[in-house]
Specification:
- The protein is 46% helix and 12% strand.
- By secondary structure, it is α/β, with parallel strands linked by helices.
- α18 links the parallel β15 and β16.
- The protein has 4 domains: 266 residues, 2-enoyl-CoA Hydratase, Chain A, domain 1 (Alpha-Beta Complex), CATH 3.90.226; 180 residues, NAD(P)-binding Rossmann-like Domain (Rossmann fold, 3-Layer(aba) Sandwich); 142 residues, N-(1-d-carboxylethyl)-l-norvaline Dehydrogenase, domain 2 (Orthogonal Bundle), CATH 1.10.1040; 67 residues, N-(1-d-carboxylethyl)-l-norvaline Dehydrogenase, domain 2 (Orthogonal Bundle).
- The protein has an 8-stranded mixed β-sheet with strand order 13-12-11-14-15-16-17-18, sandwiched between helices. Strands 1-2-3-4-5-7-10 form a 7-stranded mixed β-sheet.
- α11 runs antiparallel to α12.
- The chain has 29 helices and 20 strands.
- The chain binds (S)-3-Hydroxyhexanoyl-CoA (3H9).
- The site of (S)-3-Hydroxyhexanoyl-CoA has 29 residues, from β6 and α3.
Length: 715
């Protein structure tokens, strides 16, 4: 029978089965909550039902509270009411988990008396990733089952724990085959009834809490050990405080404290920013002219040309995702070096316990290194990762064109160069696309997918699908110098370099950006990447500080000296020599150095980026403002709790404030701070990016309402 639109009810072999089906992810919307509550009430009143199985149809168990409801007036029944009904039910309730039991979904499973999980299922409390904490008892019940140490790890990382591990830690009581979860959950419930097992409420379990109370320093030690990882984020600390409350307070009082802290996070700016990022990451895949149903080209085998840092990383990204990979080099020495680096990277991962020796060997077995370009002939996707020089790329693409099979996607990993010019070297520009990976390519999540003038829709759709298979966020961008990310980065770099001539020093600039939340500042980044990237010794003429430093052999971390001096552990200290080079250079250029405040550094570096980003948006290089946010959060270390440059500009600073400052800077800095016409229009009309037609309207499901979301949520 149907309980409501999303809830089915059947009694099978004396067990009531409540089945929720609310695509796509069975989020705990008002209809779902209402269905569960009514289902439980029906089962309790149903004399033919001796126990209850709560299960979902579709691809997953409940993936959490319905995030699109956040900030809207609460609709009864709220989640806690549903949880109370389940936890206090007079008949045993068994949660049958498949897919992912996440957030409120796992918190609901935690009020059931038992949990049975399909072997492929995963459980987690990922609220921390959207700047929140599990606000439906998760911080209180999880440590009671798995212990405080494991709970701290799960809750502050948000990681999805595989069912087998969840079973080992006691979080789920039994594992089932994926195909027979429903039947096995019913059989499990029958056993509970037959054995007349007591109704075990997780809230009543105290042994693990007692254990943790005996070790009072552990939480503080965890806090200290993870300080770097949590830097700037509020949510991890709030999650930790909830677990402290679990140790210090009686259950109900601690639950109240959890609720208070949840409401505080929900009302604060960080969660709003992180929820924006969550929806923005999902929105990137939606393109008006490349509909979701666009047929995909099959991609079973990939080739990577160039076994340097980028090529090797790209090859690993594909190997990690299960693809066989052909890696092509021009000399045996370069190939051997590339293959050895890949092996070394895998061995290092295995040494940290993140891969088994068997997994390493399986990945390496899929890798075929070769000097013969002809070997790319059977690949569905060929990615070029050679020198950033147009003539080299064109020559290579024309050779690939002669070898690759019809329909293969021919991709360039170029960071700056014109995709159309590269495509013109082939007879099939429709198949040519940019796939710009970020270093280290097997780790960084961003993939800029650059569409050329002729790139076919199905090639774009296929590149996006490949990005997803690689576990990356593919952002489709237009073709221009530096695309979205590097074009904006160049603005920041330019201002940073101007600032050190005008009066600041590299370490002051770096500190301002680090304190803003970036993992490192522009000069530290340059040192890490290598000062000589893009530097040509033949043409070097001491015309910039960077050239001078390169000429004196300071090439960055790898030479132990760049803007900073480095010790053996690569720890940086400010270099007095570099300071002198800067002072001398500024004097030679006739620049009168002055005191520069941190505020000016931030404004110059970031407003220049935002201004450029608005032009990028206006030119259609980025489809939406939020796509630019995704590029910066996933590829350049923009702190997620600040939502990305566009979100930050609009919501934290205000577009009018930014424009006013850009106008002030314009006379002295000329084109570097020429106000973007779209920025002027938006400010004149009092509109934001979302209202500019360049972003999904806020308040809709896809956009996620971040505007009105400071009301405490009651879902
Ligand atoms: C919470 O539970 C708070 C509680 O502690 C306390 C409450 C009082 N709500 O990612 P996908 C949409 S906070 C609404 O592309 P996948 C998503 O936007 C929540 N919508 O699929 C997308 O929509 P569209 C804690 C949601 O297979 C579609 O579903 N839970 C939600 O790659 C497909 O998503 C989480 O943080 C949601 N909760 O991955 C889990 N989740 O098609 C968040 C998804 O229109 N979700 N959507 O673009 C996930 O991590 C992934 O979606 C999941 C599936 C792993 C489930």
């Amino acid at each position: 029978m149907k309980i409501n639109d999303v809830t089915g009810y059947q009694v099978e072999n004396g067990i009531a089965v409540i089945t929720i089906e609310s695509p796509p992810v069975n989020a705990l919307s008002a209809a779902v909550r209402g269905g569960i509550l009514a289902g439980v009430e029906t089962a309790l009143a149903d004399a033919s039902a001796e126990a209850i199985v709560l299960i979902c149809a579709g691809r997953t168990f409940f993936a959490g509270a319905d995030i699109t409801e956040f900030g809207k007036p609460p609709v009864a029944p709220i989640l806690r009411q549903v949880q109370d009904a389940v936890e206090n039910a007079s008949k045993p309730v068994v949660a049958a988990i498949h897919g992912t039991a996440l957030g409120g979904g796992l918190e609901l499973a935690l009020v059931a008396h038992c949990r049975v999980a399909a072997r492929s299922a995963k459980c987690g409390l990922p609220e921390v990733n959207i700047g929140l904490l599990p606000g439906a008892g998760g911080t209180q019940r999880l440590p009671r089952i798995v212990g405080v140490d494991t709970a701290l790890d799960m809750i502050t990382s948000g990681r999805h724990v595989p069912a087998v591990e969840a079973h080992a830690m006691g979080l789920v009581d039994a594992l089932a085959d994926d195909a027979t979860l429903r039947a096995e959950a019913i059989a499990f419930a029958r056993r509970v009834v037959a054995e007349d097992r007591p109704l075990r409420r997780v809230r009543d379990l105290d042994a693990k809490i007692e254990e943790a109370r005996a070790n009072p320093g552990a939480i503080e030690a965890f806090r200290r050990a993870n300080a770097r990882r949590f830097r700037g984020f509020l949510a991890p600390e709030y999650n930790i405080r909830c677990i402290e409350a679990a140790l210090a307070l009686p259950f109900d009082a601690a639950l109240k404290e959890e609720r208070r802290l949840f409401d505080e996070l929900m009302a604060g700016p960080q969660s709003k920013a992180q929820r924006h990022v969550f929806f923005a990451e999902r929105r990137v895949a939606k393109l008006a002219d490349v509909p979701a149903e666009t047929p995909l080209r099959p991609v079973e085998r990939a080739s990577v040309i160039g076994a340097g840092t980028m090529g090797g990383g790209i090859a690993m990204a594909f190997l990690n995702a299960g693809f066989p990979v052909t890696l092509v080099e021009t000399t045996q020495a370069a190939l051997d070096r590339g293959l050895a680096t890949i092996r070394r990277n895998y061995d290092a991962t295995a040494a940290k316990g993140r891969l088994t020796g068997k997994q390493v060997e399986a990945r390496l077995a899929r890798l075929h290194g070769t000097l013969a370009l002809e070997d790319v002939a059977d690949s569905d996707l060929v990615i070029e990762a050679v020198f950033e020089q147009m003539d080299i790329k064109q020559a290579l693409f024309s050779r690939i064109d002669a070898i690759a099979k019809p329909g293969a996607i021919l991709a360039s990993n170029t960071s700056y160069l014109d995709i159309d010019t590269i495509a013109a070297a082939t007879s099939r520009p429709r198949d040519v696309i940019g796939m710009h990976f970020f270093s280290p390519a097997h780790i960084m999540r961003l993939l800029e997918i650059v569409r050329g003038r002729a790139t076919a829709e199905d090639a774009i759709a296929t590149a996006m699908a490949v990005a997803k298979r690689l576990g990356k966020v593919g952002v489709v961008v237009g073709n221009c110098f530096g695309f979205v990310g590097n074009r904006m980065l160049a603005q920041r770099q330019r201002e940073a370099e101007k600032l050190i001539l005008e009066g600041a020093l590299p370490w002051q600039v770096d500190k301002v950006l680090y304190d803003f939340g970036f993992p490192m500042g522009p000069f530290q980044m340059r040192d890490m990447a290598g000062m000589d990237v893009g530097w040509d010794p033949a043409r070097s003429s001491s015309s910039t500080v960077r050239e001078i430093l390169n000429e004196t052999g300071r090439r960055g971390q790898k030479t132990g000296a760049g803007y900073y001096d480095y010790d053996e552990q690569r720890r940086p200290t400010p270099s007095p020599l570099v300071e002198q080079v800067i002072l001398d250079f500024a004097a030679r250029k006739g620049i009168a150095r002055r005191e520069i405040g941190d505020g000016e550094i931030l404004e110059r570096c970031l407003y220049a980026m935002v201004n450029e980003a608005v032009n990028i948006l206006d030119e259609g290089i980025a489809v939406r403002a939020s796509d630019i946010d995704v590029v910066w959060v996933t590829g350049y270390g923009w702190p997620a709790y600040r939502g990305g440059p566009m979100f930050w500009a609009e919501h934290d600073v205000g577009l009018d404030t930014i424009l006013a400052r850009i106008r002030e800077l314009h006379p002295d800095h000329g084109d570097d701070f020429r106000p973007a016409p779209l920025l002027e229009r938006l400010v004149a009309e009092g509109r934001g990016f979302s209202a500019s037609g360049r972003d999904a309207p806020r308040g809709d499901a896809a956009g996620g309402d971040v505007r009105g979301s400071d009301r405490p949520v009651e879902s």
